[in-house]
Design goal:
This protein is an alpha/beta fold. Helices cover 25% and strands 22% of the residues. The strands form eight sheets. The protein has an eight-stranded parallel beta barrel, surrounded by five helices. Strands 2, 3, 6, 7 and 8 form a five-stranded antiparallel beta sheet that branches. Strand 16, helix 7 and strand 17 form a beta-alpha-beta unit. Helix 6 runs parallel beside helix 7, helix 8 runs antiparallel to helix 9 and helix 11 runs parallel beside helix 14. It is elongated.
Length: 578
Amino acid sequence: MTKLRVWAPNAAQVALEIHNQRLPMHAEPKGWWSISTHLAVPGTDYAFVLDDRKSLPDPRSPWQPHGVHGPSRIVDHDSFAWSDGQWNPPPLSSAVVYELHVGTFTQSGTFEAAIERLQHLKDLGVTHVELMPVAEFSGDRGWGYDGVDIYAPHHAYGGPEGLKRLVDACHARGLAVILDVVYNHFGPAGNYLAQFGPYQTSHYQTPWGDALNFDGPGSDEVRRFLCDNAVMWLRDYHFDALRLDAIHAIVDTSAIHFLEQLAVEVAALEGRLGRHLALIAESNLNDPRIVRSIQAGGYGIDAQWSDDFHHALHAWLTGEQSGYYEDFGSLAQLAKALCNAFVYDGGYSRYRNRRHGRPLGGLGAHRFLGYLQTHDQIGNRASGERSSMLMNVNYLKIGAALVMTAPFIPMLFEGEEWGASTPFLYFSGHPDPELGQAVSEGRKREFASFGWKPDEIPDPQASETFVRSKLDWSEIGREPHTELLQWHRGLIRLRKRTPELADGRFDGIHVTFDEQARWLTMSRGPLIVMVNFAQQQQTLPLTGAENYKLLLASHPDIAIDGPSPRMPGESVAVVRTL
């Protein structure tokens, strides 16, 4: 006999629909319903019926083989033959993270196909593979941030079995795996949760609609729903870490914040499993409490993305200052980001028209991920341009060098390592024509204020938009892609074999720069990263040493003999003082 349970406080009666039968379920305290039946075996489809209305998927459905509107399917997680019994991931402090989208990483766009490219990541020097959300969402293509069946790996990618094979294959190659999860909203299509209970609340709003109910009536079970989901990914799918999407959209006035509760439960699971687990947040709050320990009054999240570093680096390299880049664009801000993570740590933000952030308060750099590109920073652009479309090869090398030699945990986005020429566009595949039209029109309105004409915006619903976003792996064998790939491999090797680059202390970093002359140096102990952003050759006025050993250079004409290295235009070098 198998027991099935569902939380449905909004229903007066609930039935299990299985094998063309409707079996009444028994009411339990606090809005729960249950039934024990021999019909519920692995591989069986089932649904719940509330108050004799239409059948609905299980809110905790482990598999939706027919999409968000179809029945759920029972999965036996114990039946998978894992081969990673001795696996334990490397610590985040030593990580090189690689973010990828399963649907565009390969032409086939499946978990199984991704396995075929894992050796490339291993050869590159990656330690952690981060998957964009894979929970069931509407249609057969999308970014994944509009999921509704958050316990079910997407059917088009390969379902539960395919995902387990991918994670197991990563572990077999020494690669840890991070999963991007969304705990701030649910998608619009296939979202039946409101019929079951108060999963969402209109009391708070997010950019994507109603917020999740973290602190209102019934919120205990909503929090339980999300914490159990996190535990499931880490326990049943063997993920090593979770990346928490846009936690600034989580509104929780409870005495114990949801993030703190989640951190406590993941720490307890870590003890039970005997392997390292981690939580990484995306946040635009510039609030160090997110990554401060619970004992010190924080939420206990292990690390967070560092958008200030990205914005400062991107704005300086491209000259862009529209939207949120309005707050950036100076070399002084890039220098501050390298030494402090937060450029805005209590100062005035023109973009927000208010003060923003607060000081770090002694946190180290390993609490932050640093990057030149992410899915957001590319895909939120109207045409999905990567850095390779916005800057030349010299600047791509400089950007990569600063990411890999900065004190943060470095992260790359799929294809960045070879300067992929394919865009990463915003795409969706909603079968509902009205919803699809609304998404397409919304995208046009979003960029109209930036001067874009409607016919210039790639249609998110068009299959061509998705296909254009797939990586072209044949580029690796052509220039300048081969050169950029070798550059990234060399930078990662240097990072791994150089102790100073593994040091996550901000107090060991010293940055000098000249805004007008356009050069910057970053010292990390005896190691110095020298950057000439200007087009013309310059002699950098270094002091403190007479000679240097060249460790890595982007240009063959870099001369380091004597106390004043000569740097060709748009070049970067890493040296050690002698």
